[in-house]
Amino acid sequence: RLLGGRESRRAEFPWLVSLQSDGDHICGGTIISDRHILTAAHCFDEHDPLGFMVVTGANDLRPLDSEALSYRVHSAQIHRTYDQTAYIPDWDIAILEVERRFQFSQFASSACLPGDNIWFRPGKRCHVAGYGRRSENGLDPYLQYNIETPILTHNICNKGGYEGSISERMICAGYPSTGGTVCVGDSGGPLLCEANDNKWYLAGVVSWSIGCAERKKPDVFTNVQYFMNWINQHANLS
């Protein structure tokens, strides 16, 4: 559950999915085609991705909304450069393919991916959506929340206690004085930004932060734009 956020309206973020193992929510993800999900590689550090179910169309995971549908994962592509032993998760991106096509509706649809001409500059206010906890040691996640968060410069983020860890493969967002907004269970979920064409684009994937909304510790997202060639190749989008 995003700290300081509000509960999402029905079908407000139809791209967001819950990635579940043995019935438990582990991570978020974003629909990017009729069979593919984009998420974070670190979601599978301790779980076999082929054991996951993808749940679409749910605002409430306890019990599942009547519009929610479940899909078994057929295959997974974790970026080969990702190193799960690294202290800072770089190259933190993965694609899941489900066994059957998603049933698209107002509750489940594919997110727009940024083309070469779509960039989101520091200061841009975007939205994060997820099912994460209210606090680091809080109750297990089940309700979908969202919150507005501004993109920060790498310079500000690296000065905020991250000591140069923010690479070009990352986007930093949050509030320099109060910190970020994501918590346990939000990993893999989307950072969505509205472009000049009034469409919402998937700008980032929730990757890491220090604690849950720690003071002066913004959130870090995998930069989707950086990985578009890789995404097109492995999700057969081009």
UniProtKB/TrEMBL annotation:
<keyword id="KW-0645">Protease</keyword>
<protein>
    <recommendedName>
        <fullName>Peptidase S1 domain-containing protein</fullName>
    </recommendedName>
</protein>
<dbReference type="GO" id="GO:0004252">
    <property type="term" value="F:serine-type endopeptidase activity"/>
</dbReference>
<dbReference type="Pfam" id="PF00089">
    <property type="entry name" value="Trypsin"/>
</dbReference>
<dbReference type="InterPro" id="IPR043504">
    <property type="entry name" value="Peptidase_S1_PA_chymotrypsin"/>
</dbReference>
<dbReference type="InterPro" id="IPR001314">
    <property type="entry name" value="Peptidase_S1A"/>
</dbReference>
<dbReference type="InterPro" id="IPR018114">
    <property type="entry name" value="TRYPSIN_HIS"/>
</dbReference>
<dbReference type="InterPro" id="IPR001254">
    <property type="entry name" value="Trypsin_dom"/>
</dbReference>
<feature type="domain" description="Peptidase S1">
    <location>
        <begin position="2"/>
        <end position="236"/>
    </location>
</feature>
<keyword id="KW-0720">Serine protease</keyword>
<dbReference type="InterPro" id="IPR009003">
    <property type="entry name" value="Peptidase_S1_PA"/>
</dbReference>
<dbReference type="GO" id="GO:0006508">
    <property type="term" value="P:proteolysis"/>
</dbReference>
<dbReference type="InterPro" id="IPR033116">
    <property type="entry name" value="TRYPSIN_SER"/>
</dbReference>
<dbReference type="GO" id="GO:0008236">
    <property type="term" value="F:serine-type peptidase activity"/>
</dbReference>
<keyword id="KW-1015">Disulfide bond</keyword>
<keyword id="KW-0378">Hydrolase</keyword>
